[in-house]
Amino acid sequence: MEPIIAILETLAVLEPEVYQIKLKTAQMALVKLQEAQSYMAKGNFYLAYLASHKSYRIIPTGESKKILIKTESMLSYAVGVHTNIGKSFQYLPEKIPELLSKYQNLPILEWDLIEINSVLGQLRNAAKALNSSLLAIEREHNSYLFPEIEKWQAGIRNQQGMIQSTQNYLIDIALSDSAVMLQTLNIKLTEESANLLSLVRSSLAEAAIQPYFIQAKKDFEPYANLAINLSLSSSLTQRNTHAKWYSHWSSIEMQVLEYSDSFSEYPKAFPDREKVLSTFKQESKIRVPNLEQGFLNLDLFISKHESIYGLIETLDRDRIILNYGLSST
């Protein structure tokens, strides 16, 4: 770059009206090149890329191209991150506020299983796509994040949090109502068990109580099936695998609807079962998701991270420039 400027300086003295503007342009390209070199030395590939891009666009030199290629390769992952973010928004169910309003006011035995399974599946896929984006950022920046990337990462996490809280809200509504049913059955089975144990010896009482437990399981079956559906639909792992919360919930179901080897202990364990079930009824546990934590529209998300999406557009342009050369315009 310096030899070019030296020549232009000489020509600008001889023919200033022709070469003065070209000299200033070359000097500007040099300033940006020096900035890029300085940023590279400091390890700030984000700013080094932007500076080398400007230098190369002004005057395409081998020096600026070398930095541009190196930094572009280090930042190209951002395009993949954006692709996964775009997929996440495509997965989002339509009219989320209306869906939440519908299901929070509808008895759970009247829930549309096909629709709710679809909604949870969409939310799951949206969350997984964002998780892929976050993992990509962490792989590339395992020790230091540039401020712009850090802000982007925080925005992705907020979006993921909104999706997860929406999913949790629907599940918590279902489990809360199911816990109410389990409480009713817990009281009934405990009273019947205690009554029979007070009248006859344990072995006879155990035989006599069987129809009550069979009926209780039958009464609870729609609730149990709903929990299974919600678990499989919301699981972030492979298909036909239960969500993490289901193991704890199914153990609570079993504590109420079944008894251990010693039937005489079942009535005594009533307070413990009641305590666990009460936690699912607490209103503080069922938190309405804050949809303002994230965005329901990709364009709004992009508008909050203009510098990053400017970078992504520049990466796309430079890929064409480096492969095919500068356009004549």
Architecture overview:
By secondary structure, this protein is an all-alpha fold. The chain has 2 domains: 2-75, Serine Threonine Protein Phosphatase 5, Tetratricopeptide repeat; 91-303. The protein is built from 13 helices and no strands. The protein is rod-shaped. The mean pLDDT is 88.
Throw out a few tags for this protein.
13 helices; about 0% strand; rod-shaped; single chain; Serine Threonine Protein Phosphatase 5, Tetratricopeptide repeat; mainly alpha; about 80% helix
Shape: rod-shaped
> Quick check: average pLDDT?
88
The number of helices is: 13
Quaternary state reads single chain
What Rg do the Cα atoms give? 32 Å
Number of domains: 2
- Residue share in helices? over 70%
Distance between the ends: 22 Å
Strand content of the residues, in percent?
Answer: under 5%
Question: What is the succession of H and E elements?
Answer: HHHHHHHHHHHHH
Short recap of the structure:
The chain is mainly α and 329 residues long. It has two domains: 2-75, Alpha Horseshoe (Serine Threonine Protein Phosphatase 5, Tetratricopeptide repeat), CATH 1.25.40; 91-303. It has helices at residues 2-14, 16-42, 45-58, 62-75, 77-91, 96-104, 113-140, 147-199, 202-234, 244-257, 270-281, 298-303, 306-324.
Layout of strands and helices, then pairs:
Elements: H1 2-14, H2 16-42, H3 45-58, H4 62-75, H5 77-91, H6 96-104, H7 113-140, H8 147-199, H9 202-234, H10 244-257, H11 270-281, H12 298-303, H13 306-324
Helix pairs in contact: 1-2, 2-3, 3-4, 4-13, 5-7, 7-8, 7-9, 8-9, 8-10, 8-11, 9-10
